[in-house]
Design goal:
By secondary structure, this protein is mostly beta strands. Helices cover 11% and strands 49% of the residues. Strands 8, 9, 10, 11, 12 and 13 form a six-stranded antiparallel β-sheet that branches. The chain has a four-stranded mixed β-sheet with strand order 1-2-3-7, with no helix packed on it.
């Protein structure tokens, strides 16, 4: 009975979380994990950001890259569940922007975004973006976007959560900030 309770408790603890397999390296378009599994993609400039494992042990990878064909493809972030150890990005795939800072010609900040993945809000798993843009009326306009894993699907929504709630998740290692690309100054 004691073993059953311990097992049940462990199942509840790992309902959502991070996979036991840790990222190892990338070779071309393939991501390799320390547990000797791999996931092939069709992306160039591939980068592994993180992963989330759902309550039914589905692994969602958070990766970035761009289409290998076509001139001028932009690097984007993807949250995808591998199917048969493969992720195929198509024109129908949802893609997201990296967090960034944009500056005016005078060097002042014009807009800023931050992104986080993991348990970004208590009980909410996925990626969340906090964006602010400077308005001409000496005010900032704030917006929040959430791409959340719900019932084994990615559900997108605008949100009004506070950055402080996500930062609390970061301090207890339940959420992790995604580093932006190089800052763009005009």
């Amino acid at each position: 009975m004691k073993q059953l309770l311990i097992t049940f408790g462990l199942i509840l603890i790992i309902k959502f979380g991070y996979s036991q397999s840790e990222f190892d390296y990338i070779d071309g378009q393939t991501i390799y994990f320390k547990d000797r599994t791999s996931v092939m993609t069709n992306l160039c400039d591939l980068k592994f950001i993180g992963q989330i494992v759902t309550d039914i042990s589905c692994r969602y990878l958070i990766i970035s890259g761009k289409a290998c064909t076509g001139y001028g493809a932009k690097i984007s972030i993807f949250i995808q569940r591998p199917v048969k150890d493969r992720i195929t990005i198509s024109s129908e795939s949802s893609f997201y922007s990296y967090p960034y800072n944009h500056y005016n010609k005078d060097g002042s900040l014009f807009s800023e975004s931050r992104a986080f993945y993991g348990e970004v809000l208590p009980g909410n798993y996925g990626i969340i973006w906090f964006h602010k843009i400077y308005l001409s009326s000496n005010k900032w306009k704030y917006s929040v976007f959430l791409a959340e894993i719900k019932n084994e699907k990615i559900v997108e929504s605008d949100n009004e959560e506070l950055l402080s709630k996500t930062l609390e998740q970061v301090t207890i290692n339940k959420a992790f900030e995604i580093n932006g690309l190089a800052e763009s100054k005009n």
